[in-house]
Amino acid sequence: MAEGHADSLCDCCRYNDVIPDLGTPGNRERWAALEAAKRRLFHTLDLLKLPHGTEGENIRVPLSFSFMADALPDQGLWRSTASQEKVYTGHANGHITINVKEADDVERERLRVDMNESHRTLIGHFRHEIGHYYWDLLVKGQDESTSCRVFGDHNNPTYSDALEQYYQQGAPTDWPTRFISAYASMHPWEDFAETFAFYLDMVAVLDTALHMGLSRAEYDGTLDSMLRAFHQVGMAVNELNREMGPLDLARGVIAPAVREKLAYLHELIQNANASSQAP
Ligand SMILES: [Zn+2]
Fold first, then answer.
1. Ligand 1 centre and the CA of 128: distance in Å?
2. DSSP output for the chain
3. Residue 177 C-alpha to ligand 1 middle, in angstroms?
């Protein structure tokens, strides 16, 4: 649509179903932070030529986003907040919801420490939730048996049983030898999403590093050269971060079991790229 039309939205904004209530103080800034992260996500998806589309755009699973806030606590009424007034960050059938409080640094850091996560970032939420989207788009009903072999059986235990067990018992102590994160051990779908998010982390960091002239970021397109380049850039940035205080960028070791999962995703993404270009 021609420039200047009120109803034309950019490639990124056309995916928005619900935006934050801009009448609430602070929400304009929160929304800006969410959109900045979302734009970085789409840049990486397009770099990988991963398919995505909205309703009516000839894609099996249309993608959309809602950025929502919890209903204000009890709004002056003497009652507890009902469960439907709480917004859960998550993905369902192509629809990604992100709670806008994740855009508050203090709130997000508190959650990160509470949940014992090495990172908790807005861009990380987008990369994780889009991982669930690509499970629905590329794996569901198409490649489930291979996914089961790599990530485990997503039907057994059920997601709700796995969730309950995780919140009661936490991650197994040996999770670093089998999973990219503690949360990935919760259920095969979370493992897929967490590993997918890490794959996007690598692609995005290396792309930016190359554009910033870091020759260590060069790789030949194979997974192992990508892992090597990410390790080299990651260790250098870790040291720079330790000089100034931010969290480490990269972990030191990728367990062989995690490399196998990344190898599956590497192939899945390349095949998706090839099939999206087929006539
Ligand atoms: Zn998830």
1. 6
2. --TT-TT---TTGGGEEE---TTSTTHHHHHHHHHHHHHHHHHHHHHTT-----TTSS-SS--EEEEE-PPPSGGGSSSPPPGGGSPPPEEETTEEEEEGGGGSHHHHHHHHHHTT-S---HHHHHHHHHHHHHIIIIITTTSHHHHHHHH--TTSS-HHHHHHHHHHH-S-TTHHHH-SSSGGGS-HHHHHHHHHHHHHHHHHHHHHHHHTT-GGG---SSHHHHHHHHHHHHHHHHHHHHHH-PPPSS-S---HHHHHHHHHHHHHHHHHHHHHH--
3. 20
Ligand 1 center from residue 31 Cα (angstroms): 21
What was the pLDDT predicted at 72?
Answer: 60
Predicted structure pTM score: 0.91
Ligand 1 midpoint to CA 258 (Å)? 17
Residue 80 has pLDDT above 60, yes or no: no
